[in-house]
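__Record contents__

***
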Amino acid sequence: MSVTGPLGIAVAVWLLAGRTWRLSLSWCLLFGIGMLLVVVTKVAWYGWGIGIPDWNFAGLSGHAMRSCAVYPVVFYLMFLKARPVSRHAALAAGVLLAVLISFSRLPVGAHSLSEVVLGGAVGLAVAAAFVVTARSEQPAVVGRILVALCVPLVLVMPFTKQVPAEQWVRQVAVQLSGNDPTPRKWKHGPDRKKVRQLQQVRQVQQAI
């Protein structure tokens, strides 16, 4: 969130600067839908334990969704005035960077493979929908303005305090459901069975 969130805002500002109001609105709506899907799946897990145990899925990876939505769009817009070959190469580079960043969440145990893949798929769908929409628009400003907006964010944001978005989602889930938050991380082997047993116990307690 410390980088991709501000970059998403920078894209909207750049589009507004280019007086492409509809395109800016389209980006905000598409990115907002992607973020909403992330929040809904996480709230469903934290609040009610709704997930897919066999897939180790407990909610879309917000990190993967944002990366796959933002970086392809940023690269595409930076080369919007370039030749089609350069523009397509830039888009491919943005996709590759986003995928690498998304899968970097696996070694640190932040997400399972299914959470990263599905979160990234939603992000790529957002980026693809935006690119298709952008083909009919011609922003009035060149890509250098987007670079000028993005470079300070990339340099400064890694040193800023991390936004506790996950904690906020967990608190919302608890408030809505009235239940204790379901543990976020899936584990391998027999621990999956413990998670299912815990869910069954909670269901019995609620029934009583």
In short: The two ends are 41 Å apart (CA to CA). The mean pLDDT is 80.
